[in-house]
Amino acid sequence: MQAVIQVSPTQLKAIQAQYPTNRQLPPGAVFAHKAGSLSVTGYRSGKVLFQGTGAQQAAQQWGSVAPAKSGTTTPKTKKAKGDQLPPDFASWAVLGSDEVGNGSYFGPLTIAAVYVSQANLDFVRGLGVADSKTLTDQQIDRMAIQMIDRLPHHIVNIMPAKYNEVHEKMNIEKMKAISHNFALLKVLKQIQPDKPAGILIDQFEPRDIYYRYLQKEPLVVRENVYFSTKAEQFHLAVAAASIIARHRANVAMQELSQLAGRTIPVGSHKVVDQIAADLLAKGGLDYLGQFAKLHFSNTQKAQGLLK
Description:
The protein is of the alpha+beta class. The chain folds into 3 domains: 59 residues, 2-Layer Sandwich (TATA-Binding Protein); 165 residues, Nucleotidyltransferase, domain 5 (2-Layer Sandwich); 38 residues, no CATH class. It is built from 10 helices and 9 strands. Belongs to the RNase HII family. RnhC subfamily. Endonuclease that specifically degrades the RNA of RNA-DNA hybrids. GO terms for molecular function: magnesium ion binding; RNA binding; RNA-DNA hybrid ribonuclease activity. Its cofactor is Mn(2+); Mg(2+).
């Protein structure tokens, strides 16, 4: 999905401040930003192109979206995979979990579990909660702070140094499974004696593989557990978990940027390779490992840039 708006020079600067460059600039562009599945590119002409999930909503915050050219077709949306959810699931009291950061070279892997009771559904809905990939950092921070203050939740934030240590013993999918299970257990303990009507995990592995990763865990959440990709579309609890996880990851990225003395971006693009090479040159692989997930191919690319 994509959306295009035409803005004034002043508006262009404001959008650029909201979406700072973190990837290679295409010809004629003054900024190019990518966060998750949303890409925003601003051009000297005043045209701003939004592409990916949530493009229409993001563009409408800044101006009127130009109508699609005749003859264009709307891309098909991929169907969610996983369990068939009950028809009224969105109105249930649900404990949801989601993670962010597994596709980004720099920064932590962050998992959050959040319980949204039926009494809190209107509160979360009123905040404008949606998939964190469609929201700006400012929106995420505003919503997350309010939800953290009100909703039972738990965050597992695995910073790069710890991530690299654990990754030597297990793959990232097992790391995520253990972290989801741990966060869910923590929230279930918080809300006792209440129990959620359902638990929804944003699916990253099929049910059988997820539980295979947890075979050696002393306690495993199994009762009323559902799995679905695109789970944030089916209950606000998962969307809330996504936002709270993203907020914590954003804070971690700020901390890493302060430590490095420069902005550390998200993603795994070419700009990231050069920054990784700079960090590698400054302090070696152990130093880079304080900021980055070293098993990504970006590490080899950074080493190549130093040869």
